[in-house]
Design goal:
The structure holds 2 protein chains of 2 kinds. Chain A is mostly beta strands. Chain A has a single domain, classed as CheA-289, Domain 4 (OB fold (Dihydrolipoamide Acetyltransferase, E2P), Beta Barrel). Chain A is built from 3 helices and 11 strands; from the N terminus they run αβββββαββββββα. Chain A has a 6-stranded mixed sheet with strand order 8-1-2-11-10-9. Chain A is globular. The relative contact order of chain A is 0.23. The model of chain A has no long low-confidence stretch (mean pLDDT about 80). Chain B is of the alpha+beta class. Chain B has 5 domains: about 130 residues, HPT domain (Four Helix Bundle (Hemerythrin (Met), subunit A)), CATH 1.20.120; about 70 residues, 2-Layer Sandwich (Alpha-Beta Plaits); about 55 residues; about 170 residues, Histidine kinase-like ATPase, C-terminal domain (Heat Shock Protein 90); about 160 residues, CheA-289, Domain 4 (OB fold (Dihydrolipoamide Acetyltransferase, E2P), Beta Barrel). The longest helix of chain B has 30 residues. The two termini of chain B are about 40 Å apart. The chains are: A mainly beta, B alpha+beta. The interface between A and B is medium-sized, with 29 and 38 residues. Chain A: It is found in: Cytoplasm. Chain A: InterPro entries: CheW, CheW-like_dom_sf, CheW-lke_dom. Chain A: Its main location: cytoplasm. Chain A: Keywords: Chemotaxis, Cytoplasm.
């Protein structure tokens, strides 16, 4: 499904796309730059009781209450630490504002369609449904995450399944 | 209330109606007009005319009247629309707008424009449908109220003959008896009723009145539909009354239409001076316009949010400055600046919050009518007194309080105030008194509905409750007994009337008020009357909270739910089957909810005797919540969690504390449910995914 889907999408918009590259452990991931609202440090998160462990809680973003999701916990990475380098990428998906915790943000990359390969069927922790492809850049491989699909998915428990989002 | 108080409302409404009208006119497809749109345009014109008539804005009323007639033809399909006609209508709308502005700055409107547009519109009527519209000089019976459109011109012109103290034949069609009595009373207020006769199908009243037919119709339309009224002028004496209708309609069908076109000329003659006044219209107008603007509530809320942010930033800075001072690196001008900033920020916040506030008058102004109608139906005599009309309340609350209040007023009139004869017999004045009052009390607003009626009968309430299978005891306090009337399906009315008594409603009233964060109290004395008190927060955006600490975490309890707090002693705590614990507080056993267990807080005090029990009340039940520490009362700004996240069991909303961090506002009943659920689930860690139980149980 993802193969046909991403292929069609990419053929439709045969132009370069910009991605924000971030790291989770030793792996490099990237999301569509247009989804990113801002990047800030990890601080002052109020825990929400009885929520899944990867939902760290909520924080105050200039008067807006924003949930914070730790993708490292969600992706079962080891060594989850919160330090000065820990970064929250605030993204806008489905009319919502959500912060995602990552180990660091490296740079913004422009990928031409040829550099985006369809994602192979793999992954138990990260279903390929949530990927829009793999980006190859010299010897680096970027996992292109479809952040919309990921954050609104049932398993993220960020959105009431009854709500219309 | 002085009618002038309503002027501003009328201006604003008329302005809105005019822009609606314009929008519909612009969207109108002339080749295939949408009847809904034509109706909307017509209704707008009709409403403006009615308002203008009520306030005596004659020129505006007449202009609108002519336009309305044309629109009426258009919506009936008798007038074929063309683009140039729509243009004329738009021009008429512009002129009406100018007239409205003139009235707003207390000037007479431009006479020339008025005459020009009237003539243009008249010309259209002549050219397009070959009909002479009734002239602008005297507003006449509306064509739409006439049974047959072909009689329009005849009827319209006939009513022009009506002099300063003309005789009018008011025919009421298909009006039921009780409304008819009301209407005749209403007519008696407007003039002298000379004779009345007829049956339910057609009841005729000959009225001697200086009011125009339109004004009379406008008054009656409160009670019945416009097409149930026919108003015609009567030339002869009242003796004709029984067959006046055919008599007046027939001879006057051929009455001359000449007076109409002459009318504008007369007008100019008599009002030459106001026309000149138009030159000095401008500056005053500008002043009047700047006195109020309409802004969407969203924009105001955005400003309120931003100001909230500013306050938080300011208090963070304040903290930093006082830290600096502690380290003796303070700077006095920095400190002065900070305290100035603090004052300005608070003032700004207050000013911004006040934008959302509107006076209770907007709610109270509808009650004279409600009371009149209800009293009329019940055959009671009531005097309505309102107090504290200028008390201000948040706009969203004002909108939501009207229905519950109407219900309480009806209830008071129906069950509270006795029939006039009964009142006289027990030595009370015949006329019952109902008082509506509003005033500020602390951070709340207190709205009272007071009557001097029979009061509530404690024994009867208890008996009725037992009949309904509600668990009651004779030792209940009066306040608790009176609260029974809010139980679903509870009604002590001996018989069901169409005003109230079916037992639906009072529970809805209570729920509505609770959903606004308020509560209802009842004070009553048998034989002396009842006082229903509604206590509401001033605004929904701000909540009076009690901040508490559990482990390292801060939570907010709505202050309205907190009854008291105490230090539990070992002897008062009892374990019940399994894990349940109850605490004995003054002969009452309350379920204990340990916040740290329910919300999985680490490092909290686990020994109940070392913690503090806060007695809270939610949905009529009491609980004891175990917390580590009470921090204090504070007003907090309520922020929705669901905007970006989802509903969380046990949490109603969130707020931002002075240090910029988020604190969660606890939901008492939600916490109790959560605690029960967790115990049932064997203290397993509950994931949000399998909390579907709550989604169903949550009464959203």
């Amino acid at each position: 499904m993802s193969q046909a889907n991403s292929g069609a999408v990419l053929a439709a918009e045969a132009e370069n796309r910009e991605f924000l590259v971030f790291s989770l452990g030793d792996e490099e991931y990237a999301i569509d730059i247009l989804k990113v609202q801002e990047i800030r440090g990890y601080e002052n998160v109020t825990r929400i009781a009885n929520a899944p462990d990867f939902i760290k809680g909520v924080t105050n973003l200039r008067g807006v209450i924003v949930p914070i999701v730790d993708l490292r916990i969600k992706f079962h990475l080891e060594n989850v630490e919160y330090g000065g380098q820990t970064v929250v990428i605030v993204v806008n998906v489905a009319d919502r504002v959500v912060g995602i915790v990552v180990d660091g943000v490296s740079d913004v990359m422009t990928l031409i369609p040829d550099q985006i390969k369809p994602a192979p069927e793999f992954g138990v922790t990260l279903s390929s449904d949530f990927l829009s492809g793999l980006g190859s850049l010299d010897d680096r491989m970027l996992v292109l995450v479809d952040i919309d699909k990921l954050l609104t998915s049932e398993e993220m428990a960020l959105v009431d399944s009854t709500s219309s989002h | 209330m002085d009618i002038a108080d309503f002027f501003d409302t009328f201006f604003e409404e008329a302005e809105e109606l005019l822009s609606d009208m314009e929008q519909h006119l612009l969207e109108l497809d002339v080749d295939d007009p949408d009847s809904e749109q034509l109706n909307a345009i017509f209704r707008a014109a009709h409403s403006i005319k009615g308002g203008a008539g009520t306030f005596g804005f004659v020129v505006l009323q007449k202009t609108t009247h002519i336009l309305e007639n044309l629109l009426d033809y258009a919506r009936k399909g008798e007038l074929t629309l063309r683009a140039d006609l729509v243009d004329t209508f738009l021009e008429a709308k512009d002129i009406m707008h100018e007239q409205l502005d003139a009235y707003r700055s207390e000037e007479e409107p431009n006479q020339e424009a008025f005459e020009r547009i009237c003539q243009t519109l008249q010309q259209i009527a002549l050219d397009e449908i070959g009909q002479q519209l009734d002239g602008p000089s005297i507003p006449a019976a509306e064509p739409k109220s006439a049974p047959a459109a072909s009689e329009n011109s005849a009827e319209a012109s006939s009513s022009e003959e009506q002099g300063a103290d003309g005789l009018l034949l008011v025919a009421l069609l298909n009006v039921v008896d009780k409304d008819r009595i009301l209407l005749v009373e209403e007519l008696e207020q407007l003039g002298e009723v000379q004779s009345q006769s007829g049956d339910a199908k057609r009841y005729e009243v000959i009225l001697k009145s200086s009011d125009s037919a339109d004004d009379i119709e406008a008054v009656m339309c409160f009670i019945i539909e416009p097409d149930q009224i026919e108003i015609t002028a009567v030339e002869g004496v009242a003796a004709e009354s029984s067959n006046a209708a055919p008599a007046t309609a027939e001879p006057e069908a051929s009455a001359p239409v000449a007076p109409a076109p002459q009318a504008p000329a007369e007008k100019t003659a008599s009002k030459a001076s106001p026309a000149k006044a138009a030159t000095k219209e401008k500056p005053k107008k500008a002043a009047a316009e700047s006195s109020s603007i309409r802004v969407s509530v969203d924009k105001v809320d955005q400003i309120i949010n931003l100001v909230g942010e500013l306050i938080i930033t300011q208090s963070m800075l304040d903290q930093t400055v006082s830290d600096l001072e502690d380290q003796s690196v303070g700077n006095s001008s920095l400190q002065n600046g900070m305290s100035l900033l603090q004052r300005n920020a608070r003032d700004l916040q207050e000013a911004v919050m006040s934008i959302r506030m509107i006076p209770m008058e907007f709610v109270f102004s509808r009650f004279p009518r409600v009371v009149r109608d209800t009293a009329g139906k019940l055959g009671k005599e009531i005097e309505l007194v309102t107090e504290g009309k200028s008390t201000e309340l948040d706009k969203s609350l004002v909108e939501r309080i009207t229905d519950p209040l109407t219900h309480l007023v009806r209830n008071s009139l129906d069950h509270g105030v006795e029939m006039p004869d009964v009142r006289e017999a027990i030595g009370k004045p015949r006329v019952g008194k109902l008082t509506l009052s509003a005033r500020h009390q602390g951070g709340n607003i207190l709205i009272e509905v007071r009557d001097d009626g029979a009061g509530m009968d404690r024994d009867r309430l208890l008996a009725k409750a037992r009949e309904n299978g509600i668990n009651v005891s004779d030792s209940m306090s009066d306040e608790e007994v009176f609260q029974l009337i809010f139980a679903p399906g509870f009604s002590t009315a001996k018989e069901v009337t169409d005003v109230s008594g079916r037992g639906v409603g009072m529970d809805v009233v209570k729920r509505n008020i609770q959903s606004m964060g308020g509560r209802v109290e009842i004070q009553s004395k048998l034989g002396e009357g009842t006082n229903t008190r509604i206590v509401l927060p001033l605004t929904l955006a701000i909540l009076d909270g009690m901040s508490i600490k559990v482990g390292g975490e801060t939570f907010i309890l709505p202050l309205s739910t907190v009854l008291e707090s105490l230090q539990p002693s070992k002897d008062d705590m009892y374990a019940m089957a399994g894990d349940d614990v109850v605490i004995k507080v003054r002969d009452e056993y309350l379920p204990v909810i340990a916040i740290h267990e329910v919300l999985d807080v680490a490092n909290a005090i686990t020994d109940p005797t070392k913690s503090i029990a806060v007695i809270v009340q939610g949905e009529g039940r009491r609980y004891a919540m175990l917390v580590d520490e009470l921090i204090g009362q504070q007003q907090v700004v309520v922020k929705n969690l669901e905007d970006n996240y989802r509903k969380v069991p046990g949490i109603s909303a969130a707020t931002i504390l002075g240090d910029g961090s988020v604190a969660l506002i606890l939901d008492i009943t939600g916490l109790h449910r959560l605690s029960r659920y967790k115990k049932e689930a064997g203290k397993k860690v509950v994931n949000n995914q399998n909390l579907s139980f709550f989604k169903e149980a949550e009464p959203l």
